[in-house]
Amino acid sequence: MSQLEIKDLHISIGEKPIVKGMNLTIKQGEVHAIMGPNGTGKSTLAKAIAGHPDYTITSGDVLVDGQSILSMEVDERARAGLFLAFQYPSEVPGVSIANFLRAAVQARMAEGEELDATGYYKKLYAKMDLLKIDRKFTSRSVNEGFSGGEKKRCEILQMAMLEPKFSIMDETDSGLDIDALRIVSEGVNALRGATLGVLLITHYQRLLNYIVPDYVHVMYDGRIVKSGDKSLALELEEKGYDWVKKELAKA
Ligand code: ADP
Ligand code: MG
After folding, report:
1. Is the distance from CB of 64 to CB of 82 less than 8 angstroms?
2. Contacts of residue 30, Cβ cutoff 8 Å, sequence gap at least 6
3. Which residues pair with 10 in a beta bridge?
4. What is the DSSP string of the chain?
5. Considering only CA atoms, which of 188, 195, 157, 164 is closest in space to residue 77?
6. How far, in Å, is the centroid of ligand 2 from the Cα of 202?
7. pLDDT tens, position by position, for the chain (251 residues)?
8. What region does 66 belong to: left with phi over 0, alpha with psi -120 to 50, or beta?
9. Of 132, 136, 207, 212, which residue is least crowded by CB atoms under 10 Å?
10. d(CA 219, CA 181)
11. Residue to substitute in 18, 40, 202 for testing ligand 1 pocket (most ligand atoms within 8 angstroms of CB)
12. What does pTM read for this prediction?
């Protein structure tokens, strides 16, 4: 069984430390949620793991099956089994979803390995059926004029096609209207299983009513300050983040 380990990770933006000693291990098959107030470094964590150049990892490590991914190029990270939705361009006019996904799947394959068209379309249609996506959808251009829900549908289909070991999903509240919320939650629930580990980052407690996580972590000031099961998300909804801050002040 594979595991994704985040070990004492410190991340800075410019000179400013944002993530300050983050530790988390995710096994294949598990869904972990990270919650926390705005500005605590949740998106910074996701972007740094995706290899975004503005985010500097100053110490610590991120490992897949014991192998550090930090010196890997973005496509190598994908080949190591990581899926990071936002590593792809937001709009690709004139490129159909079907062709875009085909290129993404090809890029994920080992050097010299070829993707055959018949096999590709068979797999694409099987995944679309699983996710209840209309066949017409894949002839659209990537993200061009997409609603929030359609962007999410494209992202989830991409994730289904790449069959990652670990998916890191950063769901900001703004991106999730009711349609998008439904698509993300149904998609993740359809794909979750023994071979997929999910790190679901959200500010939005309600998402966790639809995607029930195995573990919930609260991030505050750049580190995890509290972990629990799904009941922690309910407790947070009831008591708010001030409750966590007060507990921390007492300790
Ligand atoms: P969260 O996702 O938990 O709301 P972020 O990771 O987006 O938090 O932001 C953490 C901190 O880093 C905030 O203080 C924010 O202002 C700062 N920050 C995020 N992105 C940048 C950036 N590109 N340049 C400068 N500061 C940033
Ligand atoms: Mg964020």
Report:
1. yes
2. 197, 198, 214, 215
3. 20, 59
4. --EEEEEEEEEEETTEEEEEEEEEEEETT-EEEEE--TTSSHHHHHHHHTT-TTEEEEEEEEEETTEE-TTS-HHHHHHTTEEEGGGS-S-EEEEEHHHHHHHHHHHHSPTT----HHHHHHHHHHHHHHTT--GGGGGSEETTT--HHHHHHHHHHHHHHH--SEEEEEE-GGG--HHHHHHHHHHHHHH-BTTBEEEEEES-TTHHHHS--SEEEEEETTEEEEEESHHHHHHHHHH-HHHHHHHHHH-
5. 164
6. 7
7. 899 999 999 999 999 999 999 999 999 999 999 999 989 999 999 999 988 889 999 999 999 999 999 999 988 998 999 998 755 556 777 889 999 899 889 888 888 888 899 999 999 999 999 999 999 999 998 878 888 888 889 899 999 999 999 999 998 766 678 888 889 999 999 999 999 999 999 887 888 989 999 999 999 999 999 999 999 999 998 898 888 888 888 87
8. left
9. 136
10. 22
11. 18
12. 0.93
pLDDT given at position 104: 87
Q: Delineate the domains of the chain, giving CATH numbers in brackets.
A: 3-90+164-250 (3.40.50.300)
Nearest to 232 by CA among 249, 215, 219, 245: 215
CA 104 to each of CA 69, 194, 217, 239: distance values in angstroms, whole numbers, following the listed order: 19, 23, 31, 43
